User: Fold this.
Amino acid sequence: MMEKRKIGLMGGTFDPIHYGHLLIAENAYEQFRLDEVIFMPTGTSPHKDSGKILDANERMELIRLAIQDNPHFSCSDYEITKEGICYTYLTLRDFQKQFQDAELYFIMGADSLAYFDSWRCPDEISRLSTILAAVRDGLDLDQLLPIRDSLEQKYNTRIGFINTPNFSVSSHMIRQRLAKQQTVRYLIPDVVEAYLKQHAIYVP
Assistant:
């Protein structure tokens, strides 16, 4: 019997995408032997004020530029073209229909495990995917393990931890540095930096 393809889905605002995101995706790909990682920028998020976020099509273009030299990365405009609020369980349902021959792996920050209970339909997210949680920014694995064990028992969730180098960068930091005309070299890909400067994005 042929093995199912293993597809990672990495959602996020990506405002803008940076090397921290790319490191998590690459390590997930390697450590869990995924066949592909799909970056999926949020459209209308239940967690953020979309009015303060860069236009979705521009965020999508930045992702395309950032991943263009990586053959196992791709991106999807699924959530930015979908009307209404995008809940993770609904996205996973649709992707399961689209990729019936695949196992889905949902990539997120390990800090999100602490409030996974508050997500819409966590049991359905658990049924449809394996959760890959990125351990970064000094998070203590010893504190995360009891949370993982509790969620696995409560929802029959499958949770794996992605080990990534501690690369302390955030999209907020990038936006602030660009607004102050400070360097963002080595924080984001050169092509992303060039696009942001050419179009004067994040400049007050």
